[in-house]
Specification:
With 171 residues, the protein is of the alpha/beta class. The chain has a single domain (11-147), classed as Rossmann fold. Helices cover 27% and strands 32% of the residues. The strands form 2 sheets. It has a 6-stranded mixed sheet, sandwiched between helices. Strands 1-9-8 form a 3-stranded antiparallel sheet. Strand 3 and strand 4 form a beta hairpin. Helix 1 packs across helix 2. The chain is globular. It starts with 5 loop residues before the first strand and ends with a strand. GO terms for molecular function: glycosyltransferase activity.
């Protein structure tokens, strides 16, 4: 018997949530001339690129740099790399971006990359927050907060990465 998938966000809803998150980021950091978006590969980075584009459109007077963090999620210890030097974020506000916040492990690993450099502030942005926190990390900006049971799975499909129309599914 095939497993049942329920659509929880369609393409338009994902875009609306992204715009809302971008405005929340600006409101929370209105005094900042520049910020750094840190996208966690793969879909978190795609989502961060989208947020960067929206932010640049609604606040062209500000600078939004983008860093890609690649994390070995199967490892029990932090093994990660960035496409730009982490010093790019020194003394700036950074927004750690991922597609889904589940246990918080991935965001914790992403945070770990920036522990040794001074930051003005760090916030987190996710498209979907599942609220199954095993780590003391919470989403500052989120598109949808979803209460699920542990055996349910949330899958986000983003056109640039998955070559499918944007959608978020619960299975």
């Amino acid at each position: 018997m095939p497993h049942k998938r329920t659509l929880i966000l369609d393409k338009n809803q994902i875009h609306q949530k992204s715009v809302r998150i971008a405005y929340q980021i600006l409101e929370d950091n209105f005094e900042e001339a520049s910020m750094v978006l840190v996208g966690i590969a793969d879909r978190g980075y795609v989502f961060a690129k989208r947020l960067q584009k929206i932010l640049q459109e609604i606040a062209p007077d500000k600078s939004f740099e983008l860093i890609k963090v690649t994390i070995e999620k199967t490892k029990r210890s932090l093994e990660a790399s960035t496409d730009l030097p982490i010093e790019t974020a020194k003394d700036k506000v950074i927004i750690l971006v991922d597609d889904v916040l589940n246990s918080g492990r991935t965001l914790a690993y992403g945070l770990g990359m920036f522990l040794n450099i001074p930051l003005k502030k760090m916030r987190t942005a996710v498209l979907i927050d599942r609220s199954h926190h095993q780590f003391p990390l919470y989403s500052d900006y989120y598109g949808l907060k979803l209460s699920t049971i542990l055996k349910e799975h949330v899958e986000v499909e983003l056109e640039e990465f998955d070559k499918k129309e944007d959608a978020a599914w619960l299975s």
